Task: inverse folding
């Protein structure tokens, strides 16, 4: 479903991604962990077409992302949830969720609203349809952002540290929604340091450091018996 072949990305002299090869199968749930600055966001942004690799190929469902196909392919396959929610502040919850289905996917307003209410139920916030983002808690805003991503009905959901901007007491409500989603056939790539989530949901955990994918494995094995010294050191810091 997602394939990266020798993907490199530099910003000026700074090499942020170094020859990344990655294959995520349809329906697979992958979590990516790694220190700040290791290139996790850049990696996920390359999948989502928000960054263009300096070298190498990104394929979505077998189709090559190019300068020309990018917009079409990303809109056909990917939805993303950001650390900072990125809801449109001047729009109601319902308008936020129906925007892409109406404007980009050319659904009728009635259809888009039906889908929106369905996913508001999934995230437990149907009663907030008319509310504006600023009146919601961080946890609620992120659940709305997830509903908005789901309403596009894309096959791939990308999450970039979806709980790290939240107050601690709101983390679990967002994780609970993500755990519920993980039972669906949707393909998920999640950058997160929530190890409980990774253990419970991930088919595969990948450790990224300094622009390379250092090590990966199924969570039980990965957490209990990391093979690489850098992985062990990182895990001992975050699991402390
Ligand atoms: P992570 O998400 O793992 O913290 P990022 O992918 O955000 O890492 O960043 C990796 C490195 O790339 C950092 O050193 C960051 O400063 C740099 N970087 C990211 N985006 C840009 C950009 N648009 N321009 C210049 N440098 C960037
Ligand atoms: Mg990041």
Result:
């Amino acid at each position: 479903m997602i394939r990266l072949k020798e993907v490199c990305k530099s910003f000026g002299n700074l090499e942020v991604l170094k020859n990344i090869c990655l294959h995520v199968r349809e329906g697979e749930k992958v979590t990516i962990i790694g220190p700040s600055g290791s290139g996790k966001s850049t990696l996920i942004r390359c999948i989502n077409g928000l960054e263009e690799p300096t070298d190498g190929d990104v394929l979505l469902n077998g189709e090559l992302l190019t300068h020309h196909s990018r917009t079409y392919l990303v809109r056909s396959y990917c939805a993303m949830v950001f650390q900072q929610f990125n809801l449109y502040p001047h729009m109601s919850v319902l308008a936020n969720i129906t925007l892409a289905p109406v404007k980009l996917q050319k659904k009728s307003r009635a259809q888009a609203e039906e889908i929106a209410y369905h996913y508001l139920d999934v995230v437990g916030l149907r009663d907030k349809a008319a509310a504006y983002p600023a009146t919601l808690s961080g946890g609620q805003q992120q659940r709305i952002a997830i509903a908005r991503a789901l309403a596009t009905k894309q096959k791939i959901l990308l999450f970039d540290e979806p709980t790290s901007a939240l107050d601690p007491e709101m983390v679990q409500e967002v994780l609970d929604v993500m755990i519920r989603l993980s039972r669906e056939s949707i393909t998920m790539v999640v950058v997160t340091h929530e190890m409980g989530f990774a253990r419970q949901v991930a088919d595969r955990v990948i450790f990224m450091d300094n622009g390379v994918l250092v090590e990966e494995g199924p969570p039980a094995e990965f957490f209990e018996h990391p093979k690489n010294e850098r992985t062990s050191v990182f895990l001992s810091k975050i699991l402390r």
